[in-house]
Amino acid sequence: MRSILMAAAAVLGLSACAMPGGGTTTTSALVAADASTSLLAGERLTADFTTHAAQEGMDPLVVLSLRHADGRAMTFQQGNHTNDDLMAQQPGGALAQIMGLFGEEAPVLYRATPAQNSGAPFICGAEGPATLGYHEAADGAVHIVGLKQEIQFETRPDGQMEAIPFSPDQVCARLRFRRG
Predict the structure, then answer these.
(1) Which of 11, 57, 76, 150 has the fewest C-beta atoms under 10 angstroms from its C-beta?
(2) Is there a contact between 67 and 52 (Cβ–Cβ < 8 Å)?
(3) What is the pTM of this model?
(4) Measured distance CA(19)–CA(35) in Å, rounded
(5) Structure confidence at residue 121 (pLDDT)
(6) What is the CA radius of gyration of the chain?
(7) Are 144 and 136 in contact, with CB atoms under 8 Å apart?
(8) Exposed, middle or buried, 180 (CB in 10 Å: 0-12/13-18/19+)?
(9) Tens of pLDDT along 27-83?
């Protein structure tokens, strides 16, 4: 039994070495674009986007870390792995509507990683948001919306999927920044 456990540990160790490294990180400074954003999240945030190479047959893992000027950080993983994620992020889709983007904008959905956000949230109260919508316009305007719950979908009688109406009470933050 002990040799089986040792062999399993060796295989896990080798597979950990085969995982992609730290990934490629892009950093943006975000400056509050209005007074309410400044009050809720502070004057400046730093957004780090780290993309880890995709494993065979999988989507890449994109991690968004938002860092407050006082050192607190919140971490989110891009929602790009399920059909619901993809439907929510469609241009003019459920997330765009929740964010107030009614054109052809396609915001990106991120899920909170609670273990890393415990005790540190600076958006949406002590628990932080369950999900985050992020959209950066061509002019450098950045819109971030914190949501208390996931966007859910249901199958209509005709077989089509549609988003269940999202209550405005479930939006816990609407932030506007300028990249710069």
Answers:
(1) 57
(2) no
(3) 0.81
(4) 43
(5) 79
(6) 19
(7) no
(8) exposed
(9) 999 999 999 999 888 899 999 999 988 777 777 889 999 999 888 889 999 998 788
Q: Running DSSP on this structure, what letter comes out for residue 168?
A: G
pLDDT at residue 119 in the model = 60
DSSP 73: E
- Sequence-separated contacts (24+) of 15-24 with Cβ below 8 Å: 20/52, 20/53, 20/55, 22/50, 23/50, 23/51, 23/52, 23/53, 23/61, 23/63, 24/50, 24/51
Alpha-carbon distance of 114 to 107, in angstroms, equals: 22
Alpha-carbon gap, residue 143 to 134, rounded angstroms: 6
Using one digit for the tens of pLDDT, what is the confidence trace for 106-145? 999 999 986 666 567 788 888 889 999 999 999 999 999 9
